[in-house]
Amino acid sequence: MEKVALIIVTFNRLDTLKMNLEHIRKQSRKPDNVLIVENGSNDGTLEYLTNQSEFDFLPMGQNIGWSGGLDIGMREANRKWGVDFFWLMDDDSFPSPMVLESLLNASRSISENAIIGLEGYIFKKGIPRRQEANDGLIPVDFVLVDNALVPKKLMEVVGTPDPDYFIMAEDYEYCQRAKRNGFQVFLLCTKEKLVNRLHLGSQASSKSLIWRGYYQSRNHIFVLRDQFSWKRLMGYINRQLRFIIHAMIFGKTPVQTVKYRLMGIWDGIINKRGKTIDPLTLKRIF
């Protein structure tokens, strides 16, 4: 039987994390190990994890981001348990009981090692279009790494999600890096919805959309630099103009939103990586 480590990254969402863990307990095929990367929460998350023995956790003491949490979590799980697969998860997604079993069954059905995710996209004219089908595996340009299954062999060859991205676009970059190294990326389609994602970080909170817009604009320039083509450049310009126009017309804080998107574009051009805007305060980190 394959050995699977679940990596959960959490930050300041204790009640949401508890709900997530209830869904993990109900899995028909439970992960062999669970490692929670605790990104410096101040809402009692660390105290809660300290007082339980069911799951392992890593206290980071600061918010190192989604990609940073996945990076250190995968490395620690591999060092500690020597697993065959990593099941990656955000704390605000709630998998149905058959998710891990379904992912492992799908992995066995294909000969090559591949990333298998539950939400996938194909780029058309530079715009990511969500893919759906009734059942089975379909190849895609990238999947959300949230609830994706990643084989250890891929990590050994490709590495982990890039911690310099902090958050946003790490899914796309990681999948493209995997493809460049000969791995496949598949979307697992089922008739029933396997995961309920709250997407708490991308709901209509003005502050959340501001800093996410900054990192989205910045990080896609990193991808563009690594995989440049005129088609990708035109697609990037197209998307950023759409975001800016939408913010100016419909945004709650249009001036601030556009300002931070332009800051992200500039920081991408000058290659300013890592955590450069604090999500809680929106202040620059030098």
UniProtKB/TrEMBL annotation:
GO MF, one annotated term: glycosyltransferase activity
Organism of origin is Mongoliitalea lutea
Protein name, per record? Glycosyl transferase
Family designation: Belongs to the glycosyltransferase 2 family.
Annotated InterPro entries = Glyco_trans_2-like, Nucleotide-diphossugar_trans
Checking SUPFAM superfamilies in the record gives: Nucleotide-diphospho-sugar transferases
Could you tell me which Pfam families the record lists for this protein?
A: Glycos_transf_2
Q: Which UniProt keywords apply?
A: Glycosyltransferase, Transferase
Q: Start and end of every Glycosyltransferase 2-like domain?
A: 6-117
